[in-house]
């Protein structure tokens, strides 16, 4: 089986087996099968399709444990091969030292050669011993020098010195204590010089300082050269504390400024939003004033009513209507005058205001039905009226009714 076919077979088996019905051993075998397929592809690509170097995948397909066994065998083989390589390399070096070289001269070691080599080895060994003795002597001298600087009876190693009890002071301790005493004397001399300079300044003498002997009392800064070391340190600490308080106040002011800036930005946005809402509200108010919602006359509605009244008057004059009324929102009633000065009422009923026409009726002003009289059921006029009703064609229905009334 080819490596690609083995991989497809492993994937098919992994897809058919559900995790809920698969044991740990079966899952392990499936993983081994997938690894076998991947290794088969790598082996085929490395061998270039050589059948002699290919593994018997058809035999290992149903036996995944064989891959592990083969891997252990290969590891053992390479361990043995490494040992053989080292052994062969050692023999080669030995033979190269003992066999004749490229010139053809035979290499032979006589007793004199062996004795000379032993003597050279003994000389080198004695030199090494001498160097070791010299190192030991130098270390002893270094330890002695350290012991002379350390207190009497002090241990030689740092760990022992850390746990040892203090004893009599040594040369090093004496030197350190003398240096500390000298530093203390120098500080005292400096303080005395400052006290002397302050006394001279209090007596009116010039101090010769860069400030010209003047005291900046307005700023609370002492005169230069008139403070002792302790007073200078105290003044310096006070100035540091004051600077720290100023920095804290400055940081607080900066945070307050950022907060106020954000509040101002939010307030400006709110003002802009309110201005937009104000303009919209003013538009609504103007529209309400035009509509008369504030108790005044609605000029728009009045103009629309006047236009409708004018169009109704024109319509009544053109159609010969005596009256046009609407008893309710779904009924329209028109009264026509005939040639013999009689009146016929045409009533149109709608499904809803402005909707589809449901029915019509022709009657007298007293309520007597005239539809069957003016347009019998088997007449063409009645058929045309019904067709106009079904087509929701109100103009055609009105025109047909007017023609029927005029014919009578």
What would a concise description of this structure say?
With 408 residues, this protein is of the alpha+beta class. It has helices spanning 3-16, 24-47, 57-60, 65-98, 111-149, 158-163, 171-202, 229-291, 299-319, 371-374, 380-390, 394-407; strands at 321-328, 331-337, 343-350, 357-363.
What do you see in this structure?
It comes from Tilletiopsis washingtonensis. Pfam families: Sos7. With 408 residues, the protein is an alpha+beta fold. Among the domains are: 3-63, no CATH class; 319-407, no CATH class. Helices cover 65% and strands 7% of the residues. Strands 1-2-3-4 form a four-stranded antiparallel beta sheet, with helices on one face.
Number of strands: 4
The parts where pLDDT drops under 50 for at least 5 residues are 16-22, 205-218
Main sheet: strand order? 1-2-3-4
Order of helix and strand elements from N to C terminus? HHHHHHHHHEEEEHHH
Helical percent range? 55-70%
Which percent range describes the beta-strand content?
5-15%
Q: What general outline do the C-alpha atoms trace?
A: elongated
Distance between the termini: 106 Å
CA-atom Rg in angstroms: 62 Å
Main sheet makeup: 4 strands, antiparallel
Mean pLDDT, as a whole number? 75
Separate helix tally: 12
Counting helices, strands and paired strands, the structural category is: alpha+beta
Sequence-ordered SSE layout with sheet pairings:
Blueprint: H1 3-16, H2 24-47, H3 57-60, H4 65-98, H5 111-149, H6 158-163, H7 171-202, H8 229-291, H9 299-319, E1 321-328, E2 331-337, E3 343-350, E4 357-363, H10 371-374, H11 380-390, H12 394-407
Antiparallel strand pairs: 1-2, 2-3, 3-4
